[in-house]
Design goal:
The protein contains 2 helices and 2 strands. The protein is rod-shaped, with a radius of gyration of 65 Å. A two-stranded antiparallel sheet has the order 1-2. With 160 residues, it is mostly helical. Strand 1 and strand 2 form a beta hairpin.
Length: 160
């Protein structure tokens, strides 16, 4: 609408009818344009409100999905931690079993070594005694005197 108010010429029995009709026609065109603009703005507002509701629905869905994902992530973290603790406990138990078995094996090996050491000591003592006896027997051993080989030569000479 124009800001200026129209001024009409005064005539007999009122205002200039053609000028008033033109002004009314202008106002009618302006009203029609404004009504179309209002209708467009209302359509735009309706569309914007629909988009807003869709955005709110998507936002609620994202918030719900995010909450579900966070809960799933917390559950996974909790399960992972529990599984890791179970693995560590199992590893500790296995390590304890391995250490016990290794200690038992080491004990058995040490007992075998101790028995071998004792046996080696008795064998050494026995061998030492036998060596001493052999040395004594060897020292006591006397070779007979060698006979005079002259008699053999004489016997050969006689036989010829």
């Amino acid at each position: 609408m124009s800001a200026n108010r129209p001024a009409f010429r005064v005539m007999k029995n009122g205002y200039d009818r053609f000028a008033v009709d033109d002004a009314i026609e202008n106002y009618a065109v302006q009203i029609e344009q404004l009504e179309r603009k209002v209708e467009l703005y209302q359509n735009k507002l309706t569309e914007t409100m629909r988009e807003l509701e869709e955005s709110k629905a998507r936002c609620r869905q994202l918030i719900s999905t995010d909450a579900a994902r966070r809960e799933a992530a917390e559950n996974i973290a909790r399960l992972s931690l529990r599984e890791a603790n179970d693995i560590i406990n199992t590893a500790n138990k296995n390590a304890d079993i391995i250490i016990r078995e290794a200690l038992a094996s080491a004990r058995g090996i040490l007992e075998d070594l101790s028995a071998l050491y004792d046996e080696a000591g008795s064998v050494r003592t026995e061998a030492s005694g036998q060596l001493e006896k052999l040395l004594k027997d060897f020292e006591d051993f006397r070779l007979p005197e060698m006979p005079d080989l002259m008699w053999l030569k004489e016997a050969e000479d006689k036989l010829r």
